[in-house]
Fold this protein.
Amino acid sequence: MGDYVFNQRHLLGLADYSAADIRHVLEQTRTFREILERPVPKVPTLRDKTIVNLFYENSTRTRISFELAQRRMGADVVNFSAATSSTKKGESLKDTIRNIGSMKIDMVVVRHESPGAAHFLTKCVPAAIINAGDGAHEHPTQALLDMYSLLVHFGRIEGLRVSIIGDITHSRVVRSNIIGLTKLGAKVTVCGPKTMMPPFVEELGVRVTYDLDEALRDCDAAMALRIQMERQDGALFPSLREYHERFGIRMRHLEQYPDFVILHPGPINRGVELQSEVADHPRALILDQVTNGLAVRMAVLYLLSGGSRV
């Protein structure tokens, strides 16, 4: 990267990162991905750091990925779950984080149902803050692992045609991906039911279609978003079966359009976003995404701990 210096203090969202910042994270991810292939996939780079995982929303995959990354780097890890904490007694987020901050922590990984929660924490404690998902706002490490998976498969991101399919309105994954992919020169199409398409989405520099075949016809990669059952109180589509018929990626799509690869942020609703055979197909990069997610989070932890200046 030449004389490039990574000066970010937090990872609140990819909106705050330049294209050069994102490329630097992806380059560091390559190093940590190689470390994961070693017989003992550990490095002691965070052995003097204390990290709190502050999860106000359930998230098995993201929490385990962060915790595993932290432990493989030698950090002291504290896991905080809102379900078993004083928040059940009415303690505010501000008081919770200030109490935790008084324990001299270095980093906080936070997941919260409210957009802006990660940014709010930067005003409460001096620790580095990593956003693991805030409402329907951003999920930056998911987008970084998606981009890294594409980079490894295609050797580039610039010029790739990426179609994102599903609940565009409620997805923090899609927002971070649109921001990151467009900054690195990819062409993004979004596709889904009109009831799940926000009216302002074109302003993010994407093409919009409501026809799945149109979205898949010329794309290099198709990302199917999880239908978030917990956010579907408004009956945004008639039935899961109808959703699958109109927007689920099926084997006929793989046969008809033989070039695109498949991504999914997980967990998959088989028979809804993806036909089960599609999820298990060699063109699906889903398990690669999981491994790459561990490497991405190791890279982010390393850089925000000052690793680029060691």
User: Anything to note?
Assistant: The radius of gyration is 19 Å. The chain has a mean pLDDT of 91. The first strand starts at residue 50 and ends at 55.
